[in-house]
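Handout, section B. The chain below has 910 residues.
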Amino acid sequence: MPSAAAIRAAVVDPVRLETDHLELAVCRKSGKWYLRDTQTDELFGSGHQPYGDLGIGGGKPVPMSPKSAEAAADGQSIRVRFEWRGAAGTAEPAAVTYVFRVLPSGRDVDLSVATSGPRGAQPPLLWEALWLAADEPGYFVVPQGAGWLIRAGQKVAHRFLTHAGRAHLTMQMFGVVRNDAALVLSWNDVNACVDLRTLDATDKLPRRTALSFSQTGRLRMRICGKGDYFTVARNYRELAREKGLLVPFAERVKRGPAIAKMPGAFDVKLWMKSGYKANCRFSKDPEKDQFHVERTFDDALATVRHLHDDLGFRRCMVVLAGWIRGGYDFSHPDIWPPDDDLGGPAGLARVTKFTQGCGFLFGLHDNYDMMFKAQPSANEAEAIGEHNSWAGGPQYILHPKVQAKYAVRNLEFIRQCCRPDVYYIDQTMANGLYSTDRRDLPLTRGGCVDVYREMIGRIKSMTGVWGSEDGQEWAVPVGEYHEGILSRDFYPRLGEPIPLFDLVYHDCAATFWHQGMTISLAENRHRWGRNCADPAHYLSLLSIARTPLLRPGTKHWWKTPTAPARKPEAPRRRVVPVGHGASFKALRVVSGGVGREAIWAHPPFLGFRGTVRGEYPVQLPDADGLSLRFAIGLRDGVEKTDGVRFRVEIDGRPRFDRLWSAPRWSEQQIDLGALRGRTVAVALITDPNRDPKFDWAAWGAPRIVNGRGEVVYDFIGKIGKAKVQMVELPADAEATANVFARADRGWAEGMHPLDAAIKNTYEFLSPANELAFFLPITRYERRANGLWVSAFGDGALEVAVNMGDNTVEHAGAALPPRSGFLVRSPTFLALHAAAYRGIVYAPTALFTVRSLDGEPIERSGRLRVFHGFGPSKLALTTARRAATAAGTPLPIDEGKLVVDVKREATLELR
């Protein structure tokens, strides 16, 4: 039975409320319900047992029998009441009343629950509700970390708490998308809990993933109309504003002028000193403390000078970590004075003054969650518990109510030496909210938010900008940056990553990588699995107009001798017969518990890095409604995988490209109507992404059907007709090298490769962030060809990045796979392309163009052109009649200006 039919059939003899946006229907006797989106006619419904069980006085759960429910409408509300007694009437009577109330918006339903009777009775608000069938298009939008999509057919069993650490929710919301209809849940209680669980099929319901919501008494459900996860984010943004959580930087900069220096700033985190107590878990000597100085304050000053003077940084946020007495995380909360090995207070004052003199923000990394027992201020009476042994040895967890006392005390010491603009407090957002029933220092989780916000306010009154580890919505109204929330592999990998946090709060909270992630030249995998040299890593930042974190390891890297850079060449790829562990054969495959006939297409993994490709010659009939239908999935039992890229090419042209890492089937369809009556070559390709381990890839039942649903070509039955080959991917060094470290014929030619990587990424990431910093994301889409397109504000900036495996044409540019981009705004242009406006680059080139007079580029009288690498000619459109560069006239032909730029040039136009 289709999902909508099953949902509707469960609600008999309903009580109804209707608006222009929704219909709410509740069964009078069972209490089962559904919400219908009137725009799309999609249904979101309750589960088989709509309200779960009720715990009576801590005893055995009592099922709320459908026979005991009564529903009745009252104005814009529907009440569902349950009443019962225990067996033989011996138990105390109890009652539960659920109230559905349609709010004046006509899009929102407020659901609340009230109980009477035994103390402690707290039923869930939703129980196995808002379910999605495993075989239908749909997904859940999960605000854990930066955000994930969990598809309908993905097997899942996860409990999400609110603001409880990395594995849990960073925002007080959840989303559901079925087909083209979107719904968002929102709540205010930080104690709320969401359970997402895959359920087996019953006689009335299919195998499905369903949502339960508990531990609080109120929830809002909003019907969003036609849309996707971006629609969910846009609607929740409105709700967040109502709750006082969405406070844009444009409003806050008036009372926090340091914010004005954040747009375009790279987060430069300089590691100073590490210290380890003999009794800490990192110790290599149980008898002696160990210390290591990575750089002094004067070394840090030299780094800032290099960024400003040599690399031309104008926007930067420099934060020192490990500057405290003893080094990083060694002496909390007694951090003062700054370590003598680094230069003491005088050295700290010098680097602060110089950094701020460059126009940069200057900050210090600190921590007030820790209280090491070895420190003079250690006081168990001010602790909320104990923690593991960290760098400074055994530690207490400092009670949130006393953290501000130590932070203010230490800042008073610091301000006698220097005046930092930025204070980064580690762990505050990462560890989750605390609660305790201590009589002298009672604290609830909701009260913890208020305590932390008060502390942040006091810190900002003495500094200016506040940031912390990871990211949490509760801190958005008072804090400025969230360091680590963009490092997805730092969090449990739940599904498909999306930038949900930025889609909601882009103009309210600056987001960065974790301090363990940084700009890298070659493959540099941390324990979280991130390859920091992968150029796609920078594209993901660019797609949301964010800047990276830079944590240089070598204190004077620019003075280190390096081998001459090799001129890049287009990779040559071998095409060879199948082998090296690759497969392309008919096999029954079970994915997500569902078995189906499939083509088992494991990419090669034994000594050959490449794709497996099966190409079929197909004579298409001259028929209406032709489409290629298939499913993609990984076989059950798959362990750690970075995913498989499933690709379809027709006559050599890309028609489908999807990175998939879930052991479940995902149904897909490609329209072939334009090819009717033709003979075409259809290729099914599986690409190992980066790591071929556990790439248990399968194409589920691929076939071509006509408009009547009849199969006209069965790929499994015709597998003997397929031409099966392996196509070599670029060598590992080529594939993992940071293309943005190139400098051939460009600005950083002859400089250290790390300087080239820093300068090149700064030139396109910093201006994009500067332009978009105060703006919300107004468009975000991921296309089938691998192109991601985003827009900010009202036409202020558009970004297109190619995350696919084939070159993509976009707005006059040929964007190379997994590194190509085009950034356009009235006053800024940036591109990494294989061709642009008729000029072909072999293999690629990087340029940026910025208007220096604030006029649109086409009408500007002064333009700065930066050339990062590759061929040096760039074509521009101008309405001006004459142009010069360094006094040399430049020809303009019918509005087309071609410039030849070695490093950078300022163009004068009139």
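Note. Residues 55-59, 525-531, 732-736 have pLDDT under 50 and may be disordered. Compare this with the example in section A.
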